[in-house]
């Protein structure tokens, strides 16, 4: 069996697992679909390998061919992991959005470590997220027709599952529409709400007619757990600003989020100029009276119109 066939079979079996009435096959469905995604990525590396499998190996070494031209050879028994695949896709200029694969992998890990919490609903969510990645990998990255290689039955099941899940997610999101969020950052973060217990995006407001952020009560439609606003918003803000935070760490620059001096949670978003959790905000244009640097939320809360550096200097002189 070829690598490509193995990938297709994993996805097909995963879809069959999902359709089964046997609850024991729920985790199997997610495992198989996630494994199929990784194998499709490896198939792309196999097709790009000069000898058919070099790029599948964890380690590569340069070798000279009979004509003196340099090429690459894979060594060792270990194959490349997901992080290695990402790095090779990037260096080989293979364009692919890893968001869906990362989400499916996260759901698989959550299901394994949380003892199936979320059950079939979480499995449906994982397969729904996988659908996007499967379609892209087959049609764009590998130049294959999805319905032709997976078969009409499997592809149809994937389409139906994705449509059903998206319908449920839309219904959950609609319960949040009535809320008058305290800041633009809170409004944006609400789009990233995920259950802290099972990781599902099926988070809804218990009372769809409630308009006040502070009075909102939330429930996960996947695992049935009630959710407190604080952990929900903290995690959502982190997800919302993850890319900016990564850039700040790797390339330098200001972090996109800070601890709020009022509620003490890491939910103060600089771009939106306020705390997504409690609404605290720094006055527009607030800057240090000495150097003109923009005041941080904590500096502004001190009320002396000084940045941390000059406040320290003045206190030291005193």
Give your account of this protein's structure.
- 51% of the residues lie in helices and 10% in strands.
- It has helices at residues 3-19, 26-48, 82-91, 99-113, 119-141, 146-150, 152-174, 184-190, 229-240, 242-251, 297-302, 308-317; strands at 57-64, 70-79, 203-205, 218-220, 226-227, 257-258, 268-269, 274-275.
- It contains 12 helices and 8 strands.
- It has 3 domains: 3-54 and 80-170; 175-240, no CATH class; 256-317, no CATH class.
- The protein is flat, with a radius of gyration of 25 Å.
- It has a 3-stranded antiparallel β-sheet. Strands 6-7-8 form a 3-stranded antiparallel β-sheet, with helices on one face.
Short characterization:
This protein has 318 residues and is mainly alpha-helical.
Measured as a percent range, the helix fraction is 40-55%
Q: Give the topology string: H per helix, E per strand.
A: HHEEHHHHHHEEEHHEEEHH
Number of domains: 3
Shape: flat
Per-chain topology:
Layout: H1 3-19, H2 26-48, E1 57-64, E2 70-79, H3 82-91, H4 99-113, H5 119-141, H6 146-150, H7 152-174, H8 184-190, E3 203-205, E4 218-220, E5 226-227, H9 229-240, H10 242-251, E6 257-258, E7 268-269, E8 274-275, H11 297-302, H12 308-317
Antiparallel strand pairs: 1-2, 3-4, 4-5, 6-7, 7-8
Descriptors for this entry?
3 domains, three-stranded antiparallel beta sheet, flat
């Amino acid at each position: 069996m070829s690598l490509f066939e193995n990938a297709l079979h994993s996805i097909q079996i995963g879809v069959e697992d999902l359709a089964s009435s046997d609850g024991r096959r729920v985790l199997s469905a997610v495992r198989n679909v996630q494994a199929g995604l990784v194998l499709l990525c490896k198939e792309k590396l196999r097709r790009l390998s000069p000898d058919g499998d070099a790029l599948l190996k964890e380690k590569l070494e340069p070798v000279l061919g009979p004509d003196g031209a340099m090429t690459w050879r894979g060594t060792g028994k270990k194959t490349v992991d997901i992080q290695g695949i990402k790095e090779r896709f990037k260096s080989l200029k293979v364009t692919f959005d890893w968001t869906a694969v990362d989400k499916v992998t996260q759901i698989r890990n959550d299901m394994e470590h949380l003892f199936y919490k979320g059950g079939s609903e979480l499995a449906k969510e994982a397969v729904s997220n996988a659908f996007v990645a499967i379609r892209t990998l087959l049609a764009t990255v590998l130049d294959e027709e999805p319905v032709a290689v997976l078969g009409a039955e499997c592809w149809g099941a994937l389409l139906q599952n994705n449509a059903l899940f998206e319908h449920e997610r839309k219904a959950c999101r609609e319960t949040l529409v009535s809320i008058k969020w305290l800041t633009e950052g809170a409004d944006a973060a609400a789009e990233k709400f995920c259950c802290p217990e099972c990781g599902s995006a099926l988070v809804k407001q218990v009372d769809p007619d409630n308009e006040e952020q502070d009075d909102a009560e939330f429930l996960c439609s996947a695992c049935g757990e009630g959710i407190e606003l604080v952990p929900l918003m903290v995690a959502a803000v982190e997800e919302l600003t993850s890319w900016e935070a990564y850039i700040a760490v790797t390339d330098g620059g200001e972090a996109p989020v800070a601890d709020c001096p009022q509620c003490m949670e890491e939910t103060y978003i600089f771009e939106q100029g306020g705390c997504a959790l409690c609404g605290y905000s720094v006055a527009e244009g607030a800057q240090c009276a000495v150097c003109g640097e923009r005041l941080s939320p904590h500096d502004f809360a001190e009320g002396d119109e000084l940045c941390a550096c000059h406040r320290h200097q003045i206190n030291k002189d005193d």
